[in-house]
Amino acid sequence: MFNPDLKKMLENVNSRYSLVVGTAKRAREIREEAIENEKQLDEKTVSIAMEEIWDGKYVIEEPDSIKSK
Questions:
Q1: pLDDT, tens only, 4-56
Q2: Which of 13, 27, 36, 40 is in Cβ range 3.0-4.6 Å of 18 for a Cys bridge?
Q3: Does 69 have pLDDT greater than 60?
């Protein structure tokens, strides 16, 4: 199980909410890609998404209205 440091993951986003929403969005994309390619995943999609965010492979972009706060 992947257990990242929350403080490091929050360095590039403004809130935990943004991190959760971005992780969920990426997890859904991973699931949809696996279904389209008929691929069986060994890990949970949320774990894969968190690893991608941790490694910098997926960047959570926030609207400018949120960034300025």
A1: 788 888 888 888 899 999 999 999 999 999 999 999 999 999 999 999 998 88
A2: 13
A3: no
Q: Is residue 68 part of a domain?
A: no
**Residues contacting residue 32 through CB under 8 Å, at least 6 positions apart:** none
Number of H helices and E strands in the chain, helices first, is 4, 0
- Three-state DSSP at 61 gives coil
Spatial separation of the C-alpha atoms in residues 41 and 47, rounded to whole Å: 11
Q: Shortest CA distance to 58 belongs to which of 35, 27, 14, 16?
A: 27
pTM: 0.82
Q: How far apart are CA 37 and CA 18, in angstroms?
A: 29
Position 38, amino acid:
E
Say which residues have a Cβ less than 8 Å from residue 66's Cβ, sequence separation at least 6: 14, 15, 18
